[in-house]
Amino acid sequence: MKKKVKVKGALQSYLRWPLFLSLLLITMDIGINIADREAGIMMNGFVVVYIIIALVLYFYKRPNILGDIVRYAADYGQVQKQLLKDMALPYGVLDCQGRLLWGNNEFIEVVGDEKLAKKSISRIFPEITEAVLPIDMQDQILHLTKDNFFYKVVLRKIIANGFFDEQVWDAAEDGHGDDSNSLIGIYIYDETEIKSLARQNQEQRMITGLLYIDNYEEALESIDEVRRSLLVALVDRKINKYMQSIDAIVKKVEKDKYIFLFKHKYLSQLQNNKFNLLEEVRTINIGNEMSVTISIGLGVNVESYQTSYEYARAAIDLALGRGGDQAVIKDGDKISYYGGKSIQLEKSTRVKARVKAHALKEFVEAKDKVVIMGHAIGDVDSFGAGIGIYRIAKTLNKKAHIVINEVTTSVRPLMTRFINNPDYEDDMFLKSEQAIGLVDNNTLLVIVDVNRPSYTECKELLSLTKTIVILDHHRQTGEAIENPVLSYIEPYASSSCEMVAEILQYIGDGLRLKQVEADAMYAGIMIDTNNFLTKTGVRTFEAAAFLRRSGADVTRIRKAFRSDMDEYKTKAEAISGTEVYMEHYAITICASAGINSPTVLGAQVANELLNINNIRASFVFTEFNEKIYLSARSIDEVNVQLIMERLGGGGHMSVAGAQFTGCTLSEATYNLKTTLSTMKKEGEL
């Protein structure tokens, strides 16, 4: 049954006004009749005529007026519809399942195939699935690509109150509720030009870069004096030619330092060719015994040139701290590394060690006490280096403590010689809880054998004092200890004990190592070099000679590190279960049940596997304390540090490791194999 059109509001009042005026005329007519009978009779006739006309207009002309209003509304609706149809903004209406119900001309032009869109809009834009359609009044905004055009799509839920009341009632009874009474408006904004301009703006941004020659003096000393200028000229030529290929401005600011500027659009080119300038410079050979290596630091995606330069400085420092011969890109907190495959040669001069020793001495003398801390699950190198710093503090008459929580089987034989020894205080070794209550702003905190805060024995100590010294031989990563007053990180060193042994020789004539201290430091060098087989240089043997003169006994140390039968059997089982992956990579799992220090045993297994022919690198997994530890070793063909960094770890080219949490041994092994396969395809192995 059709509903009658009801007139409401001002229009209804307007149609009733003649009737209201009739009442006024009747009142006037009564007044005139009282005043003058003849005039009243005449007025009566006019009033009757007026009332008749008012009634005729109200009852008989009203439908015509309403008809005209309806026709006007219809015409106005057609105008609105046409305006919507011809609107420049693509606009459409979807049902709650994503089917197109209606779209204006611009929308149909963007969609292309209207029939396909009516089946489902996801057939035009695969990203607009039913799952992303708005379920409440919150707009859904998507950025999509179609036919090389970029679009911003806004999806808005529309509640159509009053539409199809009977159907809505029936749907509600069926349990569908508001879905049957709602639609989805879809607006499409073409942002191709905006994206293009944004990309052009990004590509035109300038990037600041720093380039340092790592071994300028050493390389020149390795060649005849008459050829030195030629070597410098060849390096300059390589650098300038490379910079021309990326339209860069390059300026030599010192004999071994360059600064350059280039557009952001060339950054991907540098990344794709993996900064092959590193290799080009390294291959320069005109009789020089030592290859020239360079380091590059870039600061990208910043708002000012000053910040870009600061990022570049941080990146170049990180590159040098990791041993040089590599490029580092700093993009905010994200750090990317390229190169770093060559073996870092030790520097023949010990000037740097002497300078660092004098600086360390000044910091020790300025503080009341010294607290020494290594990495968690400390090894012999960490322990030995801590003992060396302890001796420096005691020589300078300062109270000193070493923080150590878990004593591994490798450290226990050495540590036992210090406990209950009358030459040492009872509080020489502290747990983390004790150290936290001891460290304050008048404490010198010395970090040895680690430079990552999350790997330290007690991370909380780093925030308790502002005077922090770092002595380490591991390559730096993006995670670093903030604002140390002294940082001595030398990746070419074989061990932290080697570095500390050099420093000891410059502290002063009053320093004398005790025999037990010399044993601990000598043991640290032995373990980290695998009995002087790995990463040993001239300075390694000089440090060992100093410790031997100080009373270190090789036989006593060797006897302290003999394995018991259970450990030896576990090691043999791990070796027998080794899988050779991709022909050159040994992977195995070392059991931890019944073993006091399974991580140390895993490292020993990794060293043993390198004695097998055609094995370029070894990887040993050990599960311990709800974590999975991975020890990686190589001789010279593979940079295991790069592999471990992809797995969240780090280390050296030939000695590295990583830790896994929240996964199983099989999952960790799969991650390692996937990483090896990926790096093989990318040419990194």
Automatic annotation (TrEMBL):
One of its GO terms (cellular component) is plasma membrane. Residues 369-525 form the DDH domain. Mn(2+) 2 binds at D381, D449, H473, D528. Its EC number is 3.1.4.-. SUPFAM superfamilies: DHH phosphoesterases. The keyword Manganese applies. It catalyses: 3',3'-c-di-AMP + H2O = 5'-O-phosphonoadenylyl-(3'->5')-adenosine + H(+). Pfam families: DHH, DHHA1, GGDEF_GdpP. The chain crosses the membrane at residues 14-35, 41-60. Keywords: Cell membrane, Hydrolase, Manganese, Membrane, Metal-binding, Transmembrane, Transmembrane helix. Its cofactor is Mn(2+). Mn(2+) 1 binds at H375, D379, D449. InterPro entries: DDH_dom, DHH_sf, DHHA1_dom, GdpP/PdeA, Oligoribo/pAp-PDE_c-di-AMP_PDE. For phosphodiesterase activity, probably binds 2 Mn(2+) per subunit. One of its GO terms (molecular function) is metal ion binding. It is found in: Cell membrane. The keyword Ion transport does not apply. Residues 603-662 form the DHHA1 domain. It is an enzyme of class 3 (hydrolase). Has phosphodiesterase (PDE) activity against cyclic-di-AMP (c-di-AMP). Belongs to the GdpP/PdeA phosphodiesterase family. This is Cyclic-di-AMP phosphodiesterase. It comes from Anaerocolumna chitinilytica. The lineage of its organism: Bacteria, Bacillati, Bacillota, Clostridia, Lachnospirales.
